[in-house]
Amino acid sequence: MGGEEEMPEQVYVPHEMMSRLEKIEEELIKNSQTHGRIFEKIEKVNVDLAIASTQYTHIIALLSDLKNDVIGLKEIPAGRWNDVVKTLISGLVGAGIAWLLLGKV
Q: What is the reported pTM?
């Protein structure tokens, strides 16, 4: 106790226990490697999920553009039918006016 540090006693470990400790160390190393592979797979899943999310966003944008194009295409025939109806009405009105004018004369 006079300032001298005491060395820890060396403990005798029986052969069976040493063998068991070595197996536990091997298991620990193996488990550590397995955990490393699991974390790598989780990271890959996260990357794949980010890629899929980006692709999903692009698909939604394309669908929106496609929807707007379809709406525009639907309006073209409607506009043509409106022109046909206007032309027919104008022709009927013109024919009616001509009949009235020619019938009165």
A: 0.47
